[in-house]
Amino acid sequence: MPSTLSTAHQATYETIFRHPVSHNLEWRSVIALFSELGTLEEEPNGKIKFVHNGLTLTLYSRGKDVEVPELMHIRRFLENSKDLTADPVPSKDVLVVLDHSGARIFRAGEELASATHVIPLDPTGHDQQVHNPKGDSGGKQGPYRKLFHEALAAKLQLEERILLIGDGQGASSEVEHFITELKEHHHEKLASHIVGTEVADISHMTDGDFVAKARAFFLG
To answer: Regarding beta strands 39-42 and 47-52, do their DSSP bridges make them parallel or antiparallel, or are they unpaired?
Structure first.
């Protein structure tokens, strides 16, 4: 998260990356944040053109609140358009929170509760979340989960030590499913970087709790 944002803009930025996805984020808050972060052009037809660190995002603001597909576009754009030259070298020790709705990646060296989100999306291009938050119900979600695991594996390729945390055990454990996928699809090297797994009641933990756990596990 940018450190120079006002309290209101920080709240909007955090809402964009909130897990589960927010359903009451107002367009006016997003537009105000965009105006602070980069260059914004608004047209009478509702078209918004936002330029951030040399990249451009074009959206249409309709209604009062931002719909989930647009929010996901905004989230990915802000991730992709970060000014990496202004950031310190990131820690390669990460804590990964896994459940049926996706994954959150926290770095041990970060004091702020900011996470990288990996969301399982429909590969047909509709940007729709395909995991059932209550669990994989079989059918077409099976192949989608494999694609999600591949996307998460790609995100973790450069990490040196990985701690996985989930809230299920046995067949209901997303952590166990992910480890199995790694081993069955020739990601043995990445699997060897997993230094620990934990079961926790993650639904009652905040991003700050996860950051604190990552620091305690890796930094002592």
So the answer is: antiparallel
Helix (H, G, I), strand (E, B) or coil at 133: coil
Nearest by Cα to 76 from 151, 173, 177: 151
Residue 125 clears pLDDT 80, i.e. is over it: no
At 110 the pLDDT is: 64
| Cis preceding-peptide flag for 2 (omega within 30 of 0) | no
* DSSP SS3 for 74: helix
* Rounded Cα distance, 180 and 176, in Å: 6
Question: The sheet that has 39-42: what strands, in order across it?
Answer: 39-42, 47-52, 55-60
56-98 pLDDT, tens digit each:
888 888 788 998 888 888 988 888 887 644 444 556 899 999 9
Helix axes 141-155, 174-184, angle to 10 degrees: 80
In degrees rounded to 5, what are phi and psi of residue 179? -60, -40
User: In angstroms, rounded to a whole number, what is the distance separating the alpha carbons of residues 42 and 28?
Assistant: 12
Query: In the predicted model, what is the mean pLDDT of the chain?
Result: 79
Q: Let me know: does 163 contact 94? Beta carbons within 8 Å.
A: yes
CA distances from 141 to 101, 108, 120, 172 (A): 12, 32, 10, 14
Question: Lowest-pLDDT range, 109-113, 114-118, 166-170, 214-218?
Answer: 109-113
Total length of the chain:
220
State whether residue 163 is helix, strand or coil. strand
The amino acid that residue 72 corresponds to is M
Q: What is the pLDDT of residue 179?
A: 93
